[in-house]
User: Fold this.
Amino acid sequence: MPEERPMPNAALRVLLEAIEDVMGANGTKAVLNAGGLSKYIDNYPPKNLEMEATFAQYGAAQQAVEDFYGPRGARAMLLRIGRATFQFGLRDQPAILGLAGIALKALPEKTRMKLILERMAKAAVDRVNQPTVVMEEEDAYYFIVEQCPCKWRPEHDKPCCYVTVGVLMESMAWITGNMYKVEEVACISNGAASCVYRIPKEPSE
Ligand SMILES: [Zn+2]
Assistant:
């Protein structure tokens, strides 16, 4: 196992609230037990930025959801959990998303997408202890995460960070009103140096 890496309480709390929203209270209990996180049953981390949670715990919760549904069924559930993670984060913890007080309505859609991705990357660095950069190519943006909870999960033969895919999809839907097909094109759990998400500049419909 890699060395422990701390993250803010609020980041893990938002994930657990999203899991509860999608799986219900009993499903969440099962996940927390299976993930070795039983201390959080009925006792989620507080809504603050103290660095008392860990990347390993965040990864263990995601892994327990994957194990609960099996690799095939898990994908859709993890995407839903990711979308809920964005919505709960936006409502309760906009600082960890970098979206507190943002107002971009007057800007063109692609400019808004890029600004949001850059704000989220900066917040990941400043608040979540997660080095992240945004790159741009002609047809897509790339959200590149250099430290990911999946590093503390078992190796996968395919990218596994569907929660983050869901977070990015929901953030793009929120800022543009359109659906973008976000893909994780490289993943640390799959042997890559970083988890890399591709966000196309054209919406899917
Ligand atoms: Zn990954």
Q: What stands out?
A: Residues 180 and 203 are 5 Å apart (CA to CA).
